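Backbone-to-sequence.
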């Protein structure tokens, strides 16, 4: 609740501090004494718009401060037009400050837009009355999740679309490498084989000649070595020292024989195949083509192949992610539809009860012919994922219902939106009726009414007074009034006075004792202007 209001150099107020109490507090005072300025200062301290004209003449700045629920909300207005806001002495940006002050106090004045006078708030009142806030929170969670996941799906789909051409290129490159499929060191081995095939004639001719020279000719090296060996062996019988040389010649003879035999085997192994030559040249040409594209070596080609395969696997994973997010969205839409339908049913049922309760309350406020109705509609939207009676309808965080309060204040008048009502007196009573019905559902515990008695008198005034007193049993109610009926119903009576002292306007606020209060109420009844 509002505990204290402090004002300094605001409008015509020099300095003022007012403590507020629970229950109903009425504020009285002559016209122009500063009653509405008091409420304006309260409103400004809690985030409403400011103006440099609010700073008192000859002052550099104004300060308005409200202590509410043990938290101090303070704003400092400079005559240059700048405003600084503080929450428990901590500076806040204007936007964050307004968010922090939202829904702390409900101000109701003839010329102010009220929370309940905003179409978008009607759904919150109905849901609070139906006690379905938890279901609505689940609906909000699903709606936001669908919205978020739909954005994710869009991003993934866009990413896939952008990457499809790249994927085509990678697939082409992978296929190009895979078709040739070079093996490690294959190019080196093929080059060696190619060199052999290119010099085959020379190899055959030379190895044949060497084979003949070694063993197959009459004058072969083998025959000459054999003759030398025979001659030396004869000498060994004379001198054993020559035996080691005999062994060396014998070993040379064996080496010549082995070499000749090896050359013969080599010649026999040679298979001159022109097709093989062409095949090797074509194969090396294909491998060289890959080398030019993919790094200059078979190792680089194979590394590129592995990298392409990994990247293509990511594309496959992207498809899996898209399929998964689609399933998640589909499941969430089913859950959203189920919750939205249940919420709609409860709203339909609750709207009848709430409409009747508000009509009964308006009856108590001397509005016997008033009719109140809660209109529940849906907006057709072809691209929606939500449906009502088989038709696609626009979905939102709170379901697919649009809620609007309708009123007919006088006989013969059609029901029309509450926000279009022009009469100040009617608005005051309707607001009071709604707030009385919602006193146990409305989360706002402090209500401020500026001249709620405008346009009423007599029996209507008595009924408004009774309703305010009843509302004040569960809420803190602060009300400016000119009617004695309302003043008598208050628990606390705050009187505002304005006077001029030494050429300076002074505004004072004082809680009246019982005697003073009775006198003030009498003056309200007789229309006297001064209270001393």
């Amino acid at each position: 609740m509002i505990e204290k209001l402090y004002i300094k150099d605001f409008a015509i107020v020099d300095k003022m501090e007012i403590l507020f109490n629970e229950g109903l507090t009425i504020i009285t005072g002559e016209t122009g004494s500063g009653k509405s300025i008091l409420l304006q200062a309260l409103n400004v301290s809690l985030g409403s718009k400011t103006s440099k004209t609010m700073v008192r003449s000859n002052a550099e700045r104004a300060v308005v401060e409200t202590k509410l629920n043990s938290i101090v909300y303070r704003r400092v207005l400079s005559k240059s037009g700048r405003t600084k806001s503080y929450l428990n002495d901590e500076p806040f940006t204007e936007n964050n400050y307004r968010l922090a002050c939202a829904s702390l106090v409900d101000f109701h004045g003839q010329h102010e837009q009220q929370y309940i006078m905003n179409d978008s708030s009607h759904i919150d009142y109905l849901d609070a009355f139906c006690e379905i806030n938890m279901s609505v929170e689940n609906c909000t969670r699903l709606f936001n999740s669908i919205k978020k996941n739909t954005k994710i799906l869009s991003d993934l789909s866009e990413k896939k679309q952008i990457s499809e051409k790249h994927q085509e290129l990678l697939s082409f490159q992978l296929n190009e490498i895979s078709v040739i499929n070079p093996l490690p060191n294959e190019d080196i081995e093929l080059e060696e084989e190619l060199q052999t095939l290119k010099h085959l004639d020379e190899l055959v001719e030379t190895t044949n000649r060497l084979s003949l020279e070694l063993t197959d000719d009459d004058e072969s090296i083998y025959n000459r070595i054999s003759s030398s060996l025979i001659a030396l062996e004869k000498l060994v019988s004379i001198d054993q020292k020559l035996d080691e040389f005999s062994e060396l010649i014998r070993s040379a003879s064996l080496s010549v024989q082995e070499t000749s035999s090896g050359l013969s085997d080599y010649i026999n192994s040679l298979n001159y195949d022109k097709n093989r030559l062409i095949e090797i040249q074509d194969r090396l040409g294909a491998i060289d083509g890959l080398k030019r594209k993919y790094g200059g070596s078979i190792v680089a080609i194979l590394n590129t192949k592995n990298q392409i395969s990994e990247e293509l696997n990511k594309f496959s994973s992207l498809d899996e992610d898209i399929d998964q997010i689609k399933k998640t969205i589909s499941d969430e839409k089913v859950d959203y539809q189920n919750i939205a339908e249940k919420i709609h049913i409860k709203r339909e049922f609750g709207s009848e009860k709430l409409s009747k309760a508000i009509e009964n309350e308006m009856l108590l406020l001397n509005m016997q012919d008033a009719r109140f109705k809660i209109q529940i509609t849906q907006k057709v939207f072809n691209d929606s994922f939500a449906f009502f009676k088989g038709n696609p309808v626009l979905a939102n965080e709170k379901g697919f219902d649009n809620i609007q309060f309708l009123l007919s204040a006088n006989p013969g008048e059609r029901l029309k939106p509450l926000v279009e009502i022009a009469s100040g007196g009617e608005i005051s009573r309707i607001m009071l009726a709604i707030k009385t019905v919602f006193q146990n559902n409305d989360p706002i515990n402090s209500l401020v009414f500026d001249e709620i008695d405008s346009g009423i008198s007599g029996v209507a005034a008595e009924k408004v007074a009774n309703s305010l007193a009843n509302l004040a049993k569960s809420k803190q109610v602060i009300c400016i009034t000119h009617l004695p009926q309302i003043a008598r119903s208050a628990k606390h009576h705050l009187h505002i006075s304005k006077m001029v002292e030494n050429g300076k306007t002074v505004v004072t606020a004082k809680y009246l004792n019982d005697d003073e209060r009775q006198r003030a109420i009498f003056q309200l009844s007789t229309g006297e202007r001064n209270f001393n």
